[in-house]
Structure formats: structure tokens, C-alpha cells
Amino acid sequence: MPQMPGSAGRARVIVTRPEEDAGHWVQQLRQGGFAAEVLPLIDIAPASDTGALAQARQGLGGYAACMFVSGNAVAYFFKHPLVTGLPPSLRLMAPGPGTVAALLAAGVPAGQVDAPAAQAEQFDSEALWAVVGQRDWQGKRVLVVRGESPDSTGGGVSSGRDWIARQWEAAGARVDFVGVYQRRTPQFSDQQIARARAAATDGSVWLFSSSEGLANLVRQPALAGVDWRGARAVATHPRIVEAVRAAGWGVVVASRPALADIKVTLASIESIYP
Fold first, then answer.
1. pTM, full prediction
2. How big is the chain by its Cα radius of gyration, in Å?
3. What domains are defined for the chain?
4. Which whole-number Å values give the CA distances from 161 to 12, 85, 147, 171, 206, in the listed order?
5. How many CB atoms lie within 10 A of CB 27?
6. Residue 71 and residue 73: Cα distance in Å, rounded?
7. Of the four listed, 30, 42, 52, 251, which is most buried by Cβ atoms within 10 Å?
8. Contact criterion met (CB below 8 Å) for 53 and 195
9. Can you tell me whether residue 181 is helix, strand or coil?
């Protein structure tokens, strides 16, 4: 891959997001002068139960709020226009700006969207709950739109947003879930395996935004025995930071998940850990 303008002498940044998302991140990082490349650690595919999705779409009028865990959740839920449109009283909720952008792109009015402030320290369920948790949820119904993972509990539905579901239930709400896409372990090519091995020692900076993606990487049989102590990483959430350190990475730096903050963190990691 050729060096990008302004990237001479800089470590390569390995973007591990699903391929559907990674292209935008790579483009933005390259425009910032970083030599970024894609190594997706999660594959995204349509949900296994399309009937449940159709039923959820038809039943939106019975919900007070609908939370989308990611931009992919929005994309698959609104893949086809709603026949009757959105109920005007429905609140649509997002854990961060990427999901908000996906909702707006899908035609959701900005006035119906709830999300953490753009300057929030983190973009996650806890940050969203800080915004909406004081509302009256007694007797209300909430729909959580998310992905399915083959090794998760609850009939194949990811447990990644169970925390906020418990908060809603404790506040008196009834919470339903619908899986609208699948998150799967990729089938890594020999070239990708070789790249991952090299990135354990060549100074590349891994960009992790998912503990699940990290697990998909380190569980690869072809990477068994790799010593990650010489590897560097930026992780976008404290729990991901802990997971990357536990997996053996020698240098792990936390960053807010916004791309502007990630660029600053990447520049600092190169100066502190040359």
C-alpha cells in the first residue's frame, strides 16, 4: 500500500471495525495524514430471523422508545421504508453520534432523537441513560434494536446492551429486543493472518472499538502463541482498554470514540511510544 501524503515515518493504523464502517474511518484517518488500513475483526450479515424484524417494524406504535445500538442496527431496521411512517410520539435513542447520524440519514426527525451530548466523555449505554434515565418509564414499552452474535446468550441475541435494559426494567418499563443483523467471526485470509502477526511487533497501532472484535482476533488458531507484548493499540472505551491489556498488548491508550479525538490520540501515541 503506498504511503499517504504526510504519513512518511508514521506507524500504520489498523482499523478493525466491520468492513461496512471501516472504509469511512480509513478515509478520514488518511486525510489526517495517517497510513491507515483495514483488517475487519467482525463480519456483518442480515439477521437470521427476518420475521421478528418485520413484526417489530409493524409494532412500533406500541413503544415509547426504540434504542438502536449502532449505525448497523439503524441501517438494517430501516433498510426498507416504514409503510406507515414513524409514530410521532416514539423516541428514537442512540448511544453516540455515529448512530445519530445513521438515524438522521434514514429520515428520522432530529427532534425525535435522544443521545448523549457530542462532548460526552463516552458514547455508550451509560451515557445514554444519563440523558433519559430520569424520565417516567413506569408501564412503558421499550424496543432495543441490536445485533446477534453466535456465542451470546438469549437465543443468539447479543448481551451487549443488557445493562440499560436492566435500568429500564428497574424503572418499571418492559423491554423487548430484536436482532436485525448478525455479527460473525470473519474468515481470515492467509494474507490477513500474516499481517496480524507482523503487527504484533512492527509498531503498527491497532484501533479497537469492540471487545468482541478483539476476541475474534486472539481466538484465531493460526495466531495461537503470538506474543502481543510488543503491540500497540488505541481503544475507544475503558472496558475495551481492559480487554486489550488482558489480551497481552504492551501499549494500550484510551481515546474518546470520536474520530477527531482518535487522531489526536494516535499522534500522541507516536510521540510517547516512538
1. 0.83
2. 19
3. 45-184 (3.40.50.10090), 186-226+240-257 (no CATH)
4. 32, 26, 10, 16, 25
5. 11
6. 5
7. 42
8. no
9. strand
